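Section 4.2 – Deliverable D4.2 (structural model, holo form)

The reporting period included a commitment to supply a predicted holo structure for the target in complex with magnesium ion. Inputs used:
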Amino acid sequence: MEGKIFVITSGKGGVGKTTATSSIGAALAMAGKRVAVVDMDIGLRNLDVVMGLENRIVFNIVDVVQGKCKLSQAAIKDRRINNLFLIPASQSDNKDILKPEDMVSLGKRLKKEFDIVFMDCPAGIERGFENAVAAADEALVICTPEVSSVRDADRIIGLLYARSITPQLIVNRINPAMTAKGDMLSHEDVTDVLSIDLLGLVEADDNVIVASNLGKPLVMIDDSKAGQAFKRIAMRLDGHVDLPIQVPQNGSSLWRKIGNKLGFK
Amino acid sequence: MLDGIIKKLFGNKKNSSATAKNRLKFALIYDKLEISDEILKNLQHDIVEVISRYFEIDKDALQLNINKSRDLSALTFNTPILSAKEKKRTS
Ligand SMILES: Nc1ncnc2c1ncn2[C@@H]1O[C@H](COP(=O)(O)OP(=O)(O)OP(=O)(O)O)[C@@H](O)[C@H]1O
Ligand SMILES: [Mg+2]
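Output (structure tokens):
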């Protein structure tokens, strides 16, 4: 059976695309899928360091497209997680080095080799976005619960619809304490404004930074709330659509429980 | 949490997330009313072409504008008519 390509995108920078790509990719590989994660941020590659694979780069995606190496030579195999492969970006080129047509043909090759491919999209709506989305069958849009991020997500969602892709939403960096106080947009606010399907909710978690310090997959840190959330997102993508979306909670204080009972939010 | 209860009880000021949501809703509506110069130019070209079939118009004097207010946007097209053209179109 042919594989499927997901683009992970956001419009706004720094909202968690690379974190999501590495985490969901790792979780699906741990669940037995053959997964490739592709760094489409040409010139500003980061997926390699987040995954701890930066020392093993020999070839990159531009080399593959230009026929300088085989696809299998550029795909770095993760030694901790079976069936997980990274195709790194080149660091010395800029986004114009690739054309959307290149990506369409590379996408066909990728789908023959892998069950699931994730394209880690760069920020912005220019060529880098065009390239990352060119071969995509589906899209995951990431935003944080902030006005600027949600607005950019809306723009990206419009561009995806124009390509007949219906995206799913992940809200990242949720601060449950602020949400409880009413000082952060809730996920209902966000989905209400954007009117797209919600795939998962990820809270702000210091383990994300610890994991990237170590170059260790977040989903391998057991007590990471964000890691757990990305695992559930992966399961939902893997067909477990009935798995409920967990709303990040502010500790489990008695006051909150009483408050919930009384209808305070 | 306690904060929340106190605010509820004493009717404290609105939370910032409600303001955020409102601003966001209006920003998105407003963003979608924006039309690129490219589209405007094409529109103007097409309108001129259609009107020119029926009227002699001064192509340099015409104006195409989009007037935006908070929740609606109107397209206005102003052109002096020099004369009506003879009816000769049958098809
Ligand atoms: N849930 C989270 N909790 C805490 N920190 C997070 C979380 N998600 C992402 N971060 C941090 O936010 C920063 C940006 O994350 P990331 O690199 O994944 O974003 P990005 O969307 O890929 O950015 P860019 O647009 O630059 O490619 C990183 O420092 C990351 O560690
Ligand atoms: Mg990134």
